[in-house]
Amino acid sequence: MLREILKKLCFWKTKTRTAREAREAKFKAPDQALDRETSQSNIKTEPAQFVNPERQNIRAKNLRIRTGRFRILIIGRANAGKTTILQRICNTTEQPKIFDLQGHEIDLSELNPTAMRGEHNIENEMIFDRNPGYIFHDSCGFEAGRASELDAVKRFIQHRSRAKHMGEQLHAIWYCIPINDEARPITRAELDFFDECGTGKVPIIVLFTKADLLDAGTIEQLVGTGMSIEDAASKAEEESINNFHKNFGHVLYAKKYPPNEHIYFRDMHKTTSDCSLLVKKTAAVLSDDTILQMFLAVQQSYVSVPMEYGIERVMFDSQGHWSKSGEEHLTTIMHMWKEFPHIVSRNHILHYMKLRMGCFGF
Predict the structure, then answer these.
(1) Residues linked to residue 322 through DSSP beta bridges, in sequence order
(2) So what's the pLDDT on residue 299?
(3) What sign results for the dihedral spanned by CA atoms 225, 231, 235, 240?
(4) CA angle, corner 291, sides to 290 and 294, nearest 5?
(5) What backbone phi and psi angles, to 5 degrees, belong to 123?
(6) What is the per-residue pLDDT across 66-110, written as a single tens digit (0 to 9) for each?
(7) pTM to 2 decimal places
(8) Around Cβ 232, how many Cβ atoms within 10 Å?
(9) pLDDT tens digits, residue range 156-184?
(10) Sequence-separated (6 or more) residues with CB below 8 Å from residue 223
(11) Distance between CA atoms of residues 192 and 142, nearest Å
(12) Alpha helices, DSSP H, located in the chain
């Protein structure tokens, strides 16, 4: 996996097309673009040598992986911050293109008011030009007493789980829950989802959004205990999240189908907001290695995440010990450090060495 990622980076470094031309080419003809990438990267990194059948099979598998797209279902009420998070993940401020089941693009200007408020056809595909490696499906949040909405999600998950082609399967679910409403932070309908909707092998990550809006109330409470405003403001972020999780967030993990992970998001309205933690946690809950490689391969905004995973996987075994092939791959990693210092820093390498081995000197 590490060598494949290195090939991809070599290709990105050498291609000379403009950003717009590259995006259009990749969106219109992803298979051809990936074939060119594989061809050029092989020329740069693979010396002429005998290739055994096992290695050929691995390469063929990697090629199939790289021609796939990563499919995510995002669920949440209107104004939960879903679109903003997807834009941050794809490093864009533009709206996605939406395609129906037949692959026809839907004209956003023709959507009726109900659709514009967030009630979408869950089967429609949302794709951002900036990163067409992702395919998103959007489901509106669940209102109490409207079982049809939950049933639609169940049918969608079951249908995708039966898909034979990995690219047509559902790979992850992000469930957005805004927590700015202290009186009703998690609705009954949202709790019912985790009681009734089993997702099989598809992992779920809960995204608690708008956590920054809890700070004002927390500051007021802390000041009421005699704390200065300055100290209260500095402690508000951590205190707000701790209080929410203690009072509400933990309830999800007591349900029949609990989430695999959760993340608190704050200040997502700012263009500098970061979604790297979401990328890392999504990668961490993907149990299938092939699907994990698909996910890492589509990363463009957070390229360091695949690098970190690549370094950790090839250098250490499942128990966190120095692997037998660690020494062999160290040369490759050091080469990556020299070629791509902006992506794989010396600190990355030192961090993993010290973390796993206790000490490693250069």
Answers:
(1) 316
(2) 83
(3) positive
(4) 90
(5) -75, -20
(6) 457 899 999 998 888 999 999 999 999 999 999 998 889 998 776
(7) 0.72
(8) 20
(9) 999 999 898 888 999 999 999 999 877 67
(10) 229, 232
(11) 9
(12) 2-14, 19-28, 30-45, 53-66, 82-89, 113-116, 147-161, 188-196, 215-224, 229-247, 276-285, 289-297, 304-315, 326-339, 346-357
Q: Sort 105 into a burial class: Cβ within 10 Å, 0-12 / 13-18 / 19+.
A: exposed
Fold of 70-297: Rossmann fold (3.40.50)
Q: How far is CA 352 from CA 3, 40, 152, 344, in A?
A: 18, 30, 44, 12
Alpha-carbon 322 to chain mean position: 28
Q: Which two tokens stand for residue 219?
A: 């500051």
Q: Structure tokens of 347?
A: 């600190």
In the chain, ranges of CATH 3.40.50.300 domains: 70-297
124 close to 100: Cβ distance less than 8 angstroms: yes
Sequence length of the chain is 362
**CA neighbor of 316 nearest in space, from 295, 333, 298:** 333
pLDDT (0 to 100) of residue 42: 40
231-247 tens-digit pLDDT? 999 999 999 999 999 99
